[in-house]
From TrEMBL:
Source superkingdom: Eukaryota
Gene3D superfamilies (UniProt xref): 6.10.250.370
Biased composition (Basic and acidic residues): 1-10, 68-82
Chain positions covered by the region annotation Disordered: 1-33, 68-89
Species, as recorded: Setaria italica
UniProt-recorded name of the protein: Uncharacterized protein
Length: 89
C-alpha cells in the first residue's frame, strides 16, 4: 500500500510539475497572442486607411477623366469652327 501511495505521490508530483510548465507556456502564448492581435489591429486600421485613400484617388481619377473628355470635346468643337471659318473666307 505504501509503495502504491509513493507511486501516486510521485505521479502527482510529475503531473504538478508538468502542469506548471504548461501554465508557463500558456502565459507565453497568451502574451504572443496579445502582441499579434495588436499588430493585426494596426494592420487592419492601416488597410482601412489605404482603402479610403484609394477610394479618394479613384474619385479624383474619374473627375479628371471627365474633365479631359470635356476639354477634348471643346477642342474638337473649336477646331471644327476654325476649319469652317477658314473654308468660308
Amino acid at each position: 500500500m505504501r509503495k502504491r501511495n509513493g507511486e501516486l505521490h510521485a505521479e502527482n508530483a510529475g503531473l504538478t510539475k508538468r502542469n506548471e510548465g504548461l501554465q508557463v507556456k500558456n502565459e507565453g502564448l497568451t502574451e504572443t497572442n496579445e502582441k499579434l492581435q495588436a499588430k493585426n489591429d494596426r494592420l487592419t486600421k492601416w488597410i482601412g486607411e489605404l482603402e479610403d485613400k484609394n477610394d479618394d484617388l479613384e474619385d479624383l481619377n474619374g473627375t479628371l477623366v471627365s474633365k479631359e473628355r470635356q476639354r477634348n470635346d471643346e477642342l474638337r468643337q473649336a477646331r471644327k469652327e476654325l476649319t469652317m471659318g477658314l473654308e468660308t473666307s
